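DM from R.C. (forwarded with permission)

"hey, sorry to bug you on a friday — could you get me a structure for this? deadline for the figure draft is monday and I only need the backbone to look sensible"
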Amino acid sequence: MKAFFLKSAGILAAAFSLVSLPAGAQLRNELLTEKNSEVVRTLDYDTEIVVCGGGLAGVCAAVSAARHGSHVILIQDRPMLGGNTSSEMRMGIVGVKEDQCQEAGILEEMQCRNFYFNPLQRYTLWDDVIYSTVIEEPNIKLFLNTAVEDVVMDGDRIAAVKCWNSNNYTHYNISGKLFLDCTGDGILRLSGARFRRGTEAREEYNESFLSSKGASSNTMGNSILLQLRKTTEHHPFVAPEWAYHFTADDFDYDTPASTIPGQKYNYKIIWRAHDNNFWWIESSGVKFDTIFDANEIQLELKKIAYGIWEYMKNNVEQCREYDLDWIGAIPGKRESTRYVAPYTLTQDDVVSGGHFEDVVAYGGWTLDDHNPNGFMNKGLASIEYTVPQGFGIPYDCLYSVNVPNLMFAGRDISASHLAFSATRVMATCALIGQAVGTAANMIIENNVTPADIRKDYIAELQDRLEQDDCMLPYRWRKVSDLTLAAKTLAENEPLRNGIDREWDGEDNGAYAAPGAVNLTYTWDKPVTVESARFIFDSDFKVRGKRMRKLEATTERVPMPSEMVRNFQVQVRVPATTRKARKANASDPAAGEWVTVAEVRDNYRRLVNVHFDAVQTDAVRIVVDSTWGADKAHIFAFDVK
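My reply, with the result:
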């Protein structure tokens, strides 16, 4: 089966024939005769999985499904991928707060790739790091600048999406077997899928942390960000006439701290310029509809942003040494809609840790409920509640309760407004996206529905996620039988305990200096080996992977120093020459070491190497170099 079928064969043939013509002749004739060319065209595509939305959730979903073998079309309505973290919006990627719980998987791969290809951490290059991750997958066809306009239904199932690309004046009809909504706004609600907007009443889910008692249509607002640049001279800033012009009275309010353990009050912080953290430039989710009023919100936030910087630059001493370097092109959204799935995540699930049998992802951001009046509220900007790090998110929140071939990941999963305030951040969305993409591949493989995965395949889904370096709460990865059957040095035992990170004070890793051969597995009898899996230390303590807020700096970020850069996988095979056999006659286990795989300039935490199956009684990794440290630190070494 080919990955994608272009049904409009006539158009494709015409395009190929045009390319093969001698340069100029027919085109000049067409212009001379004033022959009308096609203005708008329509192309039809068919694939297995259609992913709508190219933020981190959609990217991780598409890449995961494609790497497992499914054919995917990824549709993004912007000219770049990344959503709120892209160069258009520049929101920081946040999630869990503890080092040991840091998100890995495809997200960590992209962040390490960014260190390698973009050490100056320029946002436009970060866009292309994400872009590279997608287009390097042969099973993905990417449509940028393409917006979903409608859906085509076949009974209660989605048969196709209708899209429009204003750059190439093309309508697309894209059909598929399974549809993943990672748009945040839930555009595939056009299918009739059940959804919710706004804030529930406290009593609906017994959510005591809700600041308002009654149900309402209120949501958290959108934000637009600023980036500043250090300067050696102070120059006053003048905002455009159409901007708001603030005075000291606008920031004259009390800022009491909460007296409740685990609760934190947040306010607008106009005296801090060094961290570029302008999340509080937020529109109202009461006055504005975060979807339908997008243009009005953009203008409102521009007025606020320019006015804020005018006041800060000219009146706040700490801001005099900064200039405005960049202002967001479009606002980043926090909240709009949430689908209804078989299960709805609630406050109690989050604060109790999310102990779910069908856990497939996790979060760790606080229950962070923003004031629906946004910036114009003079007092509190948001209220946060501490949550357990690594609270579980179940699979049953990720597929539609009434459209059997619809799944979702990102900001539109099935959660109450309050639980959503903790799951909405991008690192968490990326983990959910990878989980949904992996499940989608299994749905295609087994010709089943999302509900069938929960019923019959959830354990296999969890195993696959853990093999792909996605930690799941309250359990650890299963290590292969072949790895467990091997003999090794006592200090290597952590490499096969299934805990691929430091945890609760335990290192769970082993060290190897360049050229050393201490990381070796042996067997009493020859075994067949054809792959090796490694988890290298990408240093979860380095939060700077998540793009710095002051972009205009010349300081380069280094790769994690203990990560393996160059290495070989070697196997021991019986001595093949008479001389070698004679030399090793006194050692029945001796043989020749042969390199079966070699990796150069590695920047990945998870590395899987595959090679032709070989009979051997020993396998080892030989580290040739690190990214700077004297020794490499490795968390896992598995063979199959």
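R.C.: lifesaver. The chain has a mean pLDDT of 91.
me: no worries. The CA atoms of residues 527 and 615 lie 5 Å apart.
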